[in-house]
Amino acid sequence: MDTMLEARLQTKQRNTQNSRETSLWSSGFGMKLEAVTPFLGKYRPFVGRCCQTCTPKSWESLFHRSIMDLGFCNVILVKEENTRFRGWLVRRLCCFLWSLEQHIPPCRDAPEKIMERTGVQNVISGRDPGGAGEGQVSGLVKKEVQRILGHIQAPPCPFLLRLFSWALLRFLKCVFLNVQLHKGQMKMVHQAAQAGLPLVLLSTHKSLLDGILLPFVLLSQGLGVLRVAWDPRTCSPTLRALLKKLGGLFLPLEANLTLDSSEGVLTRAVVHAASAPLGLWTGALAVLRILRGWGRSRPVCVRVHLAQPFSLQEYTINARSCWGSRQTLEQLLQPIVLGQCTTVPDTEKEQEWTPATGPLLALKEEDQLLVRRLSRHVLNASVMSSAVMSTAIMATLLLFKHQKGVFLSQLLGEFSWLTEETLLRGFDVGFSGQLRCLVQHTLSLLQAHVTLLRVHQGDLLVVPRLGPGLTHLAHLSAELLPAFLSEAVGACAVRGLLAGRVPPEGPWELQGIELLSQNELYRQILLLLHLLPQDLLLLQPCQSSYCYCQEVLDRLIQCGLLVAEETPGSRPACDTGRQRLSAKLLWKPSGDFTDSDSDDFEEAEGRFFRLSQQSRCPDFFLFLCRLLSPLLKAFAQAATFLHQGQLPDTESGYAEQLFQFLQATAQEEGFFECADPNLAISAIWTFRDLGVLQQTPSPAGPMLYLSPAFTSWENQEKLEQFIRQFICS
């Protein structure tokens, strides 16, 4: 759920608190400013489609053909037409009448359905430790299941749910201007619900209000009551009984016991069969914050994004066929970092950062891998379906192009340019309106992190504030990174390839002289892909790294940074008339690259590229390189910290050490965008996978210590230089 404000409505609702801000913007620039639209051409881009490789049937059948023709609906806009009644009294009571007409599906035969689940049957038959055995009376077991289920949940009360939906509707109408929901996305969810199978909804929790807003949206759209999990230790018995009637779930304490415990086996089996949890305390906290700031904050608009649904059964069948050979990051990258070899192994990287929770550990190793790769598919779809906000575009411009300041007249044009580039890459944006109003509103949202200075001729100078201001801008700019990630990876790979040939401070013309072979580009891109975390790359597990390398290279050519260089005596790259395709290449499945396919890439050895000499290329190249600079600089500083850190230490303790070092370095060198605790944790996890840090169990928890291969200062220096080759100053 993304928070945004309508620019046109906000310009009409200026109050006295914005008088100083209005005076800064009162002087015009004598130019005609165009309007910014959230789409190019006629239709808005569709985002968030499921994987065509793993779920081809869902990709085809659960897609609404006219989705791009459909617009948005305001979920909290309830009028007379939304009820069955008409009249002047209905117009005044339409919200209450609408809540009375909400469909609450009955919850029948829940104990019988749970008794039929495989996990419960295994416990009853004694096949699991702590089971009842064959001799126990099934009636007593059924009563025990009903007792456990009664502690977990209760049949929802339709009257309380309708009353709660009415109160929540009134609250949301006071807080938000509107709650936007794409009608095409909702059509796809309704189409999936018509199959009669249960829907499992996974949320990325972009807002603290998700726990309250999402159940209301789904109930208002006729999808039933969303079951939400609560912690029973934080609720009184009276509140617990009320929340059960509203669809709350309360997990018994036995469900949190370790898997090897003989107690609560039946309880854990019932819990796993009955729940799909989503936390709500964060929503209550958000409500308290809104009530505390009532009257001071401006009413805002929100949008709920829904990615394309897919069949989990279809995924489990097809996903297993996409598994190939994989190696750890230590096997792939450590020999290259230490200079022991130069060839990148032709295998995929195995890197799983999914938390190893109790239910996940209870699965087989093959099923655990299936769940972990499913989470990567879901994360990819959720990020791709989220709209880019104006604050992300403004933060990216100020952080990576104009840290020393920029005139507003120039910023207006670059804001429009970056918005258009985002739309060209198939991403959605969550704003529209007059360009000047959008920039004004965006800067007002960032007023705590930027400074506006009036200069000559009525122009304004926008300067980012140092310190925490840059850290906040870096956090906002991460929202835009997926749109330019392929080009950013390619630009940093080119930077690494040129690092040993041309001085970084050398002119662009000197760097454009160098010939870059396609094989060298592939190698540098692969090295950077292996170094970057998978939760940043958002690569689908069914996608080959070599396919992604070709995609990166194609993006660099399409955006005009690379141009093909024809070598003397070779056939032009555009001459495809005399090229012959072998039968093996013609019938090769997409993404199927093995050692036997190396002869198909022999033709790539004769392909060379140069950096384009167009006037816009140097600035765009630096902009793309700087998009990854916060993460890469944090990794490089983490390598510098290896000989200063106090090891052995716990993971949390060493993360705190590294974070303090990043903060101290930011004060000295000005790299405040790197002073992020999440970057410190990401660096530690990457170094652990790379074999720089090793982990051993201890009574206080897993302890980290420096591996023998990186105890020497020389190898630590090699690691730092390997990372810094991709950083463009």
From TrEMBL:
Reading the lineage from the top rank, the first entry is Eukaryota
Single GO MF annotation: glycerol-3-phosphate O-acyltransferase activity
Pfam families given in the database record: GPAT_C
Question: What GO CC annotations are associated with the protein?
Answer: mitochondrial membrane
Gene Ontology annotations of biological process type: fatty acid metabolic process; glycerol-3-phosphate metabolic process; phospholipid biosynthetic process; piRNA processing; triglyceride biosynthetic process
**What are the GPAT/DHAPAT C-terminal domain coordinates in residue numbering?**
301-695
Ordered alphabetically, the record's keywords are: Acyltransferase, Transferase
Protein name as it appears in the record: Glycerol-3-phosphate acyltransferase 2, mitochondrial isoform X3
Q: Provide the species name.
A: Puma concolor
